[in-house]
Input
Amino acid sequence: MLDLVTIAPGATRDGAHTSLGALPSASNGLDTTVLWIGCALMFLGVLAFGYLRLTKATATSRGFYDKSILIVAAATCSYLAMALGVGSVHPVGIQTSSDLAHRILLPRYIDWSVTTPLLLLDVILFSKPLLNEGWQWDAALVVVFDVIMIVTGIVSGSINGPARWFFFWASVGAYAVVSAYVLTLFLKAGRITERLVAGKLRTLTGMLSVLWLIYPFVFALYFGSVINGTTEDIAYAILDVLAKVGFGFVLLLGPAVELVDKTPSVAPKADESARGAARGGRVGIAR
Ligand code: RET
Output
């Protein structure tokens, strides 16, 4: 096995560093440009959502604006760090020279570990009229699975060899749980009596289901050496902007976000849902 420290700086086409930011970035120009564009778009998101918060937020809808701002602010920092070449590392266990071709950009995954739970909380709280007793437990579990998805993804990208694909499938398993929960909300959105809230919940959960599904494919194509690091960066940048800035606009524009709290619940009453649970039914999302 090669000693990582003996690998010459800039020896790889993707500019991975052997320690966090210790070596000058050797990324190609397009790579860095894409990351700077991502950073600028996320920052525009901060300004846009900040403006909407100042002009539109009410006491009950403020949380949605705050989360959207936090999400794009975290992404601005992560894209800035990546554009500056910070936190780009080689997977461990390099055995062949082709293993050197890959790198993992840690700021990206740190960003996802904070922002994907916030995005999930957005859809969960937006679906409040559907939720019955016990929803907090479900929400916590979904967030735990989401964090497991990202952490196993980091491990997968950080090791060469067959263990990579073990962790990849573990991550996909955790993703499947998250996705199943979001799809349930998508399918039940039509029950919500306020048309605007129902329609927006369907768009948000639909968007989330489709966009999030593409991430594992990009990951597998990159680590399977089908696409290079620049293509990977471009794909993630497009997805990230749609999943954060696009999603935020869909959520915050229009009156729906102010209506969620006033929309009557369609979940069974506490005693009904307890009887349902006793019969083996679920609590959490209205049956
Ligand atoms: C990884 C590793 C491989 C397996 C799976 C993954 C899923 C990633 C997802 C990321 C979503 C990111 C978002 C970012 C925000 O804008 C980690 C690539 C399943 C679903 C929405």
Observations:
- The CA atoms of residues 32 and 83 lie 5 Å apart.
- The radius of gyration is 21 Å.
